[in-house]
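Lab manual, section 2.4: Encoding a predicted structure.

Procedure: take the sequence of the chain (148 residues), apply the prediction step described in section 2.3, and record the output as structure tokens. A sample record is shown.
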Amino acid sequence: MKIVIGCDHAGYAIKGAVKDHLIAKGHEVVDVGTNSADSCHYPVYAKAACKKILDGECELGILICGTGIGMSIAANKHNGIRAACCSDTFSARLTREHNDANILCFGERVVGAGLALELVDAFINAEYMNSGNHVTRVAMLSEIEKEN
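Recorded output:
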């Protein structure tokens, strides 16, 4: 799978471990930055990652900031993106299965490296159920995007 990864300065320390983990699992990783711990603005990296998914270059994305909240807000401003901020593996799995989420967000200041890798695995290994009420609800989300 081809996965885009991005972070701001508050997620930089953990991004390398996540990237290495994905590569070790056989995934291709597109890194949109940042590439240092110098202060920067998370919307820049959320936008770059979303573009990779919306253009079809990447299937899924991982965005990391201090809490994961800023990245998820920025990512969800893009039509066609369903980003979820998760700090537990149950939510990371179910957001793929039920909501067809295409970006996982989390905070380096909230989760440690071990849990971060577990979140990534839960998200990447899950598949959208594409049945019943899940399809109806995801379609409803798409309608809201079109209206706004």
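Check your result against the sample. Strands lie at 2-7, 28-31, 60-65, 83-85, 103-107.
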